[in-house]
Each structure stands twice: as C-alpha cells, then as structure tokens.
Amino acid sequence: MHILICAATNHEIEPTLQFLKQKPAGKNHLIRILITGIGSIATTYQLLKSIQEKKPDYVIQAGIAGAFAKESEPGKVVLIFEEILGDLGVEEQGKWNDLFDLELTESIYPFTEKKLINPNCEDWKKYGLPFVRSLSVNEINTNKQRIGLLQEKYHPVVESMEGAAFHYVCLQEKIPFMQMRAVSNFIGERDKKDWKMEEAIANLNTELIRIIQLLP
Question: What is the pLDDT of residue 107?
Fold first, then answer.
C-alpha cells in the first residue's frame, strides 16, 4: 500500500520521521512524507501537487489543534470525522453567517449539509481513538464573542488551520483518508506557558507510529 503522511510542519511529526528512518514500514507498504506548510492555501496546493505526481492509496494528515470543549484536554489525540469551514462568511447583527447561509454557494459534493465528512471512519474504529468534529480557520480564534458564535452554530470540538483543505482535496480526488489531531491548548488561551505543545506532539506521534506498526 502506498501511504502519504502529511503535516503542516516538520516539528509536528519529527518523532515519526525519525522512526521511519530507523524502521521502514516494510515490504508491503511505501510511506511518503509531505510537509505542506501552514494554512489552507499551502495545504491545498502541496497536497494536490503531490497526489498528481504519485497518487497514494491512503492519506493521513497529522498535526496539533486547539480545543473548544473542556473534555478534550491538552495532550488528547483525536480523529476527525467531519470538517466545517469556520472563517468563510460574515459576522453581522450578532450572528455568524457562512457561505451557505449567504446563498453564495450550494452545499453540494464534496460538502454534505455544509460539512466535509470522512466516509472512511469505520476503518479506524479499531484503533480506539475518539472521533470529533473540527472547525478550520485561517485566523486563529481569540475573540470570545466569535468563539461563542462558532460554538453555538457548529458545536465543534477542535480547531485547526489545514483540516478542511485536506478533507476537500481527498474527497474530490476520491482517495481514502484520515486526519489525526493532538490538542495543544484551549482556544482563546494565548498564554503559551499553559499550552502543552510538546506533550501533544509526543502523544500524536506515539499514536501515529502505533498505527503505522499495525498496518496490515
């Protein structure tokens, strides 16, 4: 199986890179690494370019995320079953209206009721990680009012800057995929001494390496 593992930065998957250097996946698997850069624009371009050069059988995205919900404490690793666009729209009269609310576009494939849903989740239940809903933004949310509006409207659990782009490309290209995220902080918390960045990265890579080793 040809597997593409992508991340926004080297730092997020450095332990996995070192693991693969020491212990390749085996004769039944080819694992390639793609560092896309941060944000939706870089992710879309780099992922699509890589797929066009050599189409993989499966794509895994791994990275850190912020958490909306207190039950997803820093350090926790989750899988994303659906992504929502969190910054394409307008805030007016105390409400957040997205592109679909504004009738600027229709909720047609690859969207399902405004969401980019992963159809491959059943394959990943065996790994024992929780599935959550994610919101993607290009501007990290810090405004309490905006955070509240997004929580009320979409009920997301985590937030990232690349997830929706990843889901969008894989759905359009009809390639099976999974997004893994480790929580580094609560959304709106800008005091980084309270973040658990290194713990999140360690836990993320522990799970990613475990899954690589369990590949059939």
Answer: 92
